[in-house]
């Protein structure tokens, strides 16, 4: 299992947190998501043989947020 912290811009509330969390958890291979709203960061635990970092970024961007 791999861990990564993504910098996500535009998250401001609980809805933002839920949108990002749900988008990532729908991806096969993502096992855990922890959103840190005040820091604009998302910690993700994932299986790199099942999902790529690029796919995770796309899932977040599809919800309307920018990933730095």
TrEMBL record:
Membrane-spanning ranges: none
Superkingdom of the organism of origin: Bacteria
UniProt subcellular location: Cytoplasm
Main location: cytoplasm
HMA domain ranges (all copies): 2-68
Keywords per UniProt: Chaperone, Copper, Cytoplasm, Metal-binding
Name of the protein: Copper chaperone CopZ
Species name: Scopulibacillus daqui
């Amino acid at each position: 299992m791999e861990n990564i912290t993504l910098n996500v811009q535009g998250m401001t509330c609980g809805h933002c947190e839920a949108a990002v969390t749900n988008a990532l958890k729908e991806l096969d291979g993502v096992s855990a998501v922890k959103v840190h709203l005040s820091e604009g960061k998302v910690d993700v635990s994932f299986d790199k043989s099942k999902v790529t970092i690029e796919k995770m970024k796309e899932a977040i961007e599809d919800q309307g947020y920018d990933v730095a």
